Amino acid sequence: MGDMLRRNKNLRRPRKSGTERRRREATHRKRLVVLGVPAEQLRTMDAVQLRLLLKAKNKGPRAAAA
């Protein structure tokens, strides 16, 4: 039989870290500021709202170009 830790990918996979989460959220905020969202509005939003807004903003230019 093989080694369980080597075979079970879920036990070997790295965990998400708080540092990476904060870096991702900061990147999302910067992208939204470039897309024209006021920084004051972004300060009150949580991560889920940021992602939803980013999805909506990314669909806008594509739909206008088509």
Task: Compose a concise summary of this entry.
Helix content is 74%, strand content 0%. The chain is mostly helical and 66 residues long.
Description:
This protein has one domain. The protein is 74% helix and 0% strand. The protein is built from five helices and no strands. The protein has helices spanning 4-7, 9-12, 18-34, 39-43, 47-65. The relative contact order is 0.10. The model has no long low-confidence stretch (mean pLDDT 82).
Q: What order do the helices and strands come in, and which of them pair?
A:
Elements: H1 4-7, H2 9-12, H3 18-34, H4 39-43, H5 47-65
Helix pairs in contact: 3-5
What is the helical fraction, as a range of percent? over 70%
CA distance, first residue to last residue: 57 Å
Biggest sheet layout: none
Integer count of domains: 1
* Mean pLDDT over all positions: 82
- Tally of helical runs: 5
List keywords for this structure.
66 residues, elongated, mainly alpha
